[in-house]
Specification:
mainly alpha; about 80 residues; single chain
Length: about 80
């Protein structure tokens, strides 16, 4: 299950990175993306979690949250 949690954290980190990139594209881009990211004080969830192992209960809650997030829009964006 640890590999599953690590994968979920990876997906969340990539999503966070994509959102930050979109935010960066809407700025004046007077600095590099790396500088912009560091000023936003963004930390990877994955690296934080590697420092503190998660319990079985936390892992189960994380899986439920990931399922709810992934399947929250089953109709494909239809109104």
């Amino acid at each position: 299950m640890e590999a599953t949690a690590d994968f979920i954290f990876y997906v969340f980190d990539r999503e966070q990175e994509d959102l930050l990139w979109q935010q960066y594209l809407h700025t004046d881009m007077l600095m590099s993306f790396k500088e912009f990211k560091s000023k936003q004080k963004v930390r990877d969830i994955r690296s934080i979690q590697k420092q503190k192992p998660i319990s079985k209960t936390e892992e189960k809650n994380l899986l439920n949250f990931a399922k709810a997030t992934l399947f929250s829009n089953e109709k494909g964006g239809e109104n």
